[in-house]
């Protein structure tokens, strides 16, 4: 296999690049191995830019796959006005993927990214081979319309206690959850140079509007998503309630479910040593349609 970069590059030092799709200049990072397999496109969560991805997850995937991450329109270093609906974000993601010259991809969507992934699969089913969606829920799912309130409350909670709000939003308040949160936040600081631009208030407000719309939307027919899907979460997600994870598992016809104990929204980061091998094994299996071809 040929490495995409001339030397071993990790998430800590991979360069940020840009590509234009339509009227948007997307900022993205690409690393891993250039093999005959399907590239994995990562879809980011609420209020996040490129530097919010856990290095252990990115580097874990890129050990065997070509990994591509990007900033949504109007977020981080990407140009344009931020989208205010999941449908718009999905269309932007499709434009980015096609601008990269990719005919088919695997999607890894965390939180809001998992919602975008569902829309992509419904809009352009041939573009998606497999999906991994974590800490997420379906349109109209329980508590999703209240994500903005939970987010603002925990932002205030973080300011009052001089802590990152993700410590409260992503992790439980048990000793294991608190420890996992601190370790996760330290990993996010490993990239010290050439970091991404922070999200703006306008972009955050647009994303919160999109989440409110998604929470109020009529449930989609998820039986139309025929691709294999790995759904994962913690058993105590208070940001996107864990009941949504079980709902997805019931409604997606070709789904595998992973629930981690004593963990919340960021369970796949807390349990990255278990999640990454599970995800890679899931991606390595040929879909049924390919086996029967």
From TrEMBL:
InterPro entries registered for this protein in UniProt: AB_hydrolase, AB_hydrolase_1, AB_hydrolase_fold
Entry-linked Pfam families: Abhydrolase_1
Keywords from the named record: Hydrolase
Keyword Transferase: no
GO MF annotation list: hydrolase activity
AB hydrolase-1 domain segment(s): 40-269
UniProt name for this protein: Alpha/beta hydrolase
Native organism: Dyella humi
């Amino acid at each position: 296999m040929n490495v995409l970069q001339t030397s071993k590059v990790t998430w800590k030092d991979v360069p940020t690049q840009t590509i234009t799709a339509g009227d948007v200049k997307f900022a993205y990072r690409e690393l891993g191995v250039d093999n005959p397999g399907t590239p994995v496109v990562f879809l980011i969560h609420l209020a996040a830019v490129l530097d919010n991805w856990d290095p252990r997850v990115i580097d874990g995937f890129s050990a065997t796959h070509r990994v591509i991450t990007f900033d949504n329109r109007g977020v981080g270093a990407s140009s344009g006005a931020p989208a205010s609906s999941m449908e718009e974000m999905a269309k932007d993601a499709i434009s980015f993927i096609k601008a990269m010259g990719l005919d088919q991809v695997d999607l890894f969507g965390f939180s809001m990214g998992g919602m975008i992934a569902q829309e992509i699969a419904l809009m352009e089913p041939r573009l998606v081979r497999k999906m991994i969606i974590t800490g997420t829920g379906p349109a109209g799912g329980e508590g999703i319309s209240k994500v903005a309130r939970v987010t603002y409350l925990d932002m205030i909670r973080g300011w009052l206690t001089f802590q990152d709000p993700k410590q409260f939003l992503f992790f439980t308040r048990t000793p294991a959850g608190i420890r996992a949160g601190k370790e996760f936040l330290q990993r996010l600081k490993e990239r010290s140079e050439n970091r991404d631009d922070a999200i703006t208030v306008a972009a955050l407000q647009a994303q919160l509007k999109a989440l409110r719309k998604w929470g109020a939307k009529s449930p989609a027919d998820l039986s139309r998503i025929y691709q294999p899907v790995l759904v994962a979460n913690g058993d105590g997600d208070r940001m996107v309630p864990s009941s949504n994870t079980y709902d997805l598992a019931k409604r997606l016809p070709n789904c595998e479910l992973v629930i981690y104990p004593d963990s919340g929204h960021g369970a796949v980061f807390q349990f990255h040593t278990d999640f990454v091998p599970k995800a890679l094994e899931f991606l390595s299996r040929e879909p049924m349609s390919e086996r029967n071809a």
